[in-house]
Structure formats: C-alpha cells, structure tokens
Amino acid sequence: MAGEVRLWKKPDIHRKTVTMADPTIGDPEITFTQIDVDLDVQDILLAASQHDLAKLRRLVRTQSQLPDAANVKDPETGYSPLHSAIAACEPEANDKANGTTSTATIGSEILKSGVDTVKLLLQEGAIWNDLDNNDETPGCLARRIGAMELYDLIVDAGVRAEMLMNRLDGYEELSNDEEEKERSEDEPETAPELVDSADQTSTVTNAPANPEVTNQGYLGSSLTIQQDRILDSDQNGVMMEWEREIMRKSAEKLLPTTGLKVLNIGHGMGIVDGLLQEKAPASHHIIEAHADVVAEMKRRGWDSKPGVVIHEGRWQDILPALVANGETFDAIYYDTFAESYADFRDFFSEQVIGLLEQDGKWGFFNGMGADRQISYDVYQKVAEMDIFEAGFDVEWEDIPVPKLEGEWEGVRRAYWVVDNYRLPLCRFMD
Ligand SMILES: C[S@@+](CC[C@H](N)C(=O)[O-])C[C@H]1O[C@@H](n2cnc3c(N)ncnc32)[C@H](O)[C@@H]1O
Fold first, then answer.
1. Residues 375, 376, 380, CA angle at the centre, nearest 5°?
2. Which of 231, 380, 400, 408 is the most exposed place for a label (fewest CB within 10 A)?
3. Which residue's alpha carbon is nearest to atom 4 within ligand 1?
4. Acidic residues bias located where (predicted)?
5. Does 257 lie in the same domain as 133?
6. Which domain holds residue 289?
7. Does the beta carbon of 347 sit less than 6 angstroms from any atom of ligand 1?
8. How far is ligand 1, taken at its centre, from the CA of residue 378, in Å?
9. Does one domain contain both 222 and 161?
10. CATH number at residue 142
11. Total domains in the fold of the chain
12. pTM greater than 0.90 (yes/no)
C-alpha cells in the first residue's frame, strides 16, 4: 500500500525468546529448546525496515552495545540493515506467495524514505556488498524489486569504497618504500571502515577477475586447448567461443580500415587476432605469456602470417622494450587472464601513453565483475574514472549477450552472468 512502510518481519519481533524445534534432540516435533534473540540486532533491523531515521540514528550511533551496529545481521535471512531498508520497499505482490512476479510499482513515499534510510546507513559505515543468505547484496535486492534509485545509491557507495581501496593500495606501496609517515598523515579517517567492509564481502578491486587464480599460478599450469574453449588445469575458463561476437565488434571498432598497425595482448584462442588479420594490418604484434598458447599459435602458423610479430612473455616485461624501441600503434587491445585490476590499471596508466598513436584507439575485454550485475556496474564506473585520470576518453556500447546456460558444462565457474556486454573504446582526451 502506497505510503506505508511494510515490515520485513513479523511484528512480534521483540520477543526475548522463541521456541524452535531442535533436530539434534530426539523427535523435532516434540522436543523444543529456547534460544535467545539478540534484541539490539532486531531493534536495528526493525528500525531500518520501518525507515525510522531518528530511531535508527540513535541505535546505530549511541545506544547499541554492538561494535559494528550498521552491519548487524539477521541470523535467519542474513539481512543487514541495508537489506532490511531495501526489502521494505518491495511492492506488495498479491501473488508473491504463489511465486509469480509482481508488476506493482514502488510508492513514491516509501521510495523516498528508503532513499533517506539507505543514505543514513551508508554514512554510518554500512557495507555496500554484504551478502544475505540468498546470496544477494543489498544492491542485488534493490535491482530485483525494481528500486533503481536505491540500486544507484549502492552502486555509488561501491564505487567510493573501491576507489578508496585503490588509493590505499597506492599508500601501501609508498609505505613499503619507507614512507610510512606520509601514509598515516594522508589517510582519510573513514578509510579503515570501508576497507574492512569490502574485505568481508564478495568483490575486491585488486583481486584477479577470478579470485581463485593468480597470473603466476595460471602461467605455470598446463592448459586444455579445445575447439571451443581453453581451460586451465583447474577447469577455469580462460577463453570461450561464445565471446566471438564481442571480439568481432571490438576488432571492427579498433581497426576500421586496412593497413593500420595493431598490438594485441593475450592471444588465447586467436579469435580477435583472426579478426584483426582480416583487416590486413600493416603490422600486427601479439604478446602471449603462456607457453602452451604460444606452442599452439606456432602449430597453427601464426608466426608466418603477414605482418605478424609474436612476443613471447608477459606484457609487463615486453612493453617497456617496445616503448624504448619507439614502436607505436593505431590500435591496442588488452585481454589477458588471471590478472588483477591493479595490473590492468598499470597497463593503461603507464604503458598505453608510450605506445598509442595520437589519434589511435585502445580497448579491453570488459569482464570485470561480470558474475554479478552490481559488481559489473561498479567496476565500469571505477575503470571509467581511472581511465579518465590516465588521460583517455571512453565510449561504451551495449551488446546483448545470449543466454549462456549450456556453455558452462565442464567449466569450474560461470564467469559471465550479466545480460549486456559493455564494449569500451578509448582514445586520448582532446
Ligand atoms: C582470454 S585469453 C585472450 C583471448 C583472445 N582475446 C581471443 O580472442 O581468443 C587471455 C590470454 O592472455 C594470456 N595472458 C595472461 N596473462 C598474460 C600476461 N601477463 N601477458 C601476456 N599474455 C597474458 C593468456 O595466456 C591467454 O592466452
């Protein structure tokens, strides 16, 4: 009902104790045990779900004995106060119980009080990407119920947290260089909370795209190279045929005409390189670090294709020499595997400037955070800001990705779940 804040939990929430079946003691039908329900936690969650700002502020700031009151969790649902505040905005779905999707819209008053509550909680240090028992972050929940205004607030909080983590990594490097003093003076006061928050949750900026694999580990593992995929020794998908359309669009944008000079980093299945070759480039440099991929490239005759120069090794080791030799390119593409966001940022902040022609273009496989829509949206904004800071403009084009359900058989982890691929094209700023 419009204007009414719906409770996310039944109103008898204040009971000090509840009875429940204990399956470990005899017949669960007849044996009961008493458990304590933490009143503080329930009070905070209830105030969040009621969008009661005054009470919530009081509870979170002063009254609660809890050390991290803005991030308490309901033991049953795993809801944090942010989840509770957002779930309370869900339109009344008559048929929710029947499992059908509601078409009802969120009342503007509820949305407004939801916005205020979410803002308050974020100011009080609420974690933007904490997971509930349904594996949803507050942002996932907001998106699912169609509360896009709330979703955008959470995305912005995610961007702030991730940007801050990047900066702190920079500070850490400084401190390793014996500049510890400078670090502690410059560190923003809110930093530790945000860093702690993000550490507990689902995405971390400087983790590799697949957190289970490091670049060093990957490069030392042996690969299974098949017709439609490359897998590492743990069955992680390194490259898959379904990405061909993305590669095609990327190659078209990077090399609109024949006779240009192109550099591709990461050969993989050779899909993008095959498409770049179709544009008869004047020169076509390829950097590839994995010995199995290099062997396969040679077996398939890449070393004798027109204009092709293969560099065996990591781009981190190869690119400085190319810069020193004065090599420049009209187009550069970056698509590696098991590298961190920090590696990628080093690539475009440190290397591209020395390699790209003034009117050249560069692009990358935009797969960061693609296993969850909110992570994808956060990473896009983080990358965009860093790309601007490095002196480039970026243009995005959405490409629908077909349903990939059958694709993941035999692959350890579905690294792509979002509906649209956002294809980036970067140029020097005017
Ligand atoms: C996702 S695949 C590239 C797919 C390619 N775009 C295609 O169209 O088939 C990533 C490739 O990057 C390579 N790679 C990983 N880390 C690298 C690094 N540091 N330097 C160069 N190549 C790297 C991997 O061995 C792999 O062949």
1. 115
2. 400
3. 268
4. 172-190
5. no
6. 218-428
7. no
8. 24
9. no
10. 1.25.40.20
11. 2
12. no
